[in-house]
Amino acid sequence: MQTYNDIYLDARKRLKAEGVEAFAPEARLIVSAAAGKTVEQLTRDLNLYVSADFSERVESYIARRLAGEPVAYITGEWEFYGMMLNVTPDVLIPRTDTEVLVDKAIEMLRGREENTRVLDLCCGSGCIGLAVAENVRNSRVILVDKSLKALRVARSNVLKNNLTRSVTCIDADACAPPPVLLGSFDMLLCNPPYIPSEDILGLDPSVRDYEPVEALDGGPDGLDFYPAVTRYWRAVLRDRGCLMFEVGIGQAAAVKQILEDAGFAGVQVFQDTLGIDRVVAGIHIAGGENNG
């Protein structure tokens, strides 16, 4: 009979042989998911024997991974900002790139009065808003997406992370005026679709063939969402509230100009861990809108 460790070592070997870069952590995730255990529980139980059914389940997971499916969709979970989140093909897999948006949001919200209100627009899995809710004491976060399937995932993550007291989900279109009676916010965070349409076919197959295209496609130049969100949703920002976007490679200057043209003050650009301009943020000054 084989142990969990035998199965893990075999999975690791096969993934490595097929050129999977993160073969060791992915093997752990796959075997853990097949066993219905956390990685920590798997480590504890490595010397226990497994059933034939379990071996077959791992085999099916490995086959899916080697066919190109992202490991996050196989396991149904992914870690972001220290939180374990449910993910399905209805939402993008949270990226490390996006953590800089959360970092800057938390940094800017420190020292503010309690009961801060934050809106996460185009929320997908809810990763951004949930990370803020987890790390900003007494914040109130609204997760917004037009995809009802994505909102189901987001709601499951609110429950998974015990944040029902501070996080609410609503459906709305980022490219249309916000719902009435939504209230006002100290911060609006948005990671919209920003891949230029013609670049979609050139994406890595693990992204192009598995992740939701509507969460990737930002129009001809990738910038469709930024002026729309700035135009329609700045109305929900309180005086000196902050609008903060994640942007794609090479888009920061254009998005900075969009915010400045709309009357936002102190517009800044922040880089991710690779030195890429990744976040653009500006301060809303009541009465300073440029509606030209």
Tell me what the structure shows.
With 292 residues, the chain is an alpha/beta fold. It has 2 domains: 4-67, Helicase, Ruva Protein, domain 3; 78-283, Vaccinia Virus protein VP39 (Rossmann fold, 3-Layer(aba) Sandwich), CATH 3.40.50. The protein has 11 helices and 9 strands. The protein has helices at 4-17, 23-35, 39-44, 52-66, 71-75, 99-109, 127-135, 148-160, 205-208, 225-233, 252-261, and strands at residues 77-80, 83-86, 117-121, 140-145, 167-171, 185-190, 237-246, 265-271, 277-283. The protein has a 7-stranded mixed β-sheet with strand order 5-4-3-6-7-9-8, with helices on both faces. Strand 1 (77-80) and strand 2 form a beta hairpin. The longest helix is centred in the first third of the chain and has 15 residues, at 52-66. The protein is elongated.
Key words describing this protein structure:
Rossmann fold, 2 domains, Helicase, Ruva Protein, domain 3, 292 residues, 9 strands, 18% strand, seven-stranded mixed beta sheet, alpha/beta, 11 helices, two-stranded antiparallel ribbon
User: What is the percent of helical residues?
Assistant: 25-40%
By CATH's scheme, which homologous superfamily of the largest domain applies? Vaccinia Virus protein VP39
Low-confidence stretches: none
Number of domains: 2
Structural class: alpha/beta
* Discrete helix count: 11
Assigned CATH class of the largest domain? Alpha Beta
Order of helices and strands: HHHHHEEHEHEHEEHHEHEE
CATH architecture of the largest domain: 3-Layer(aba) Sandwich
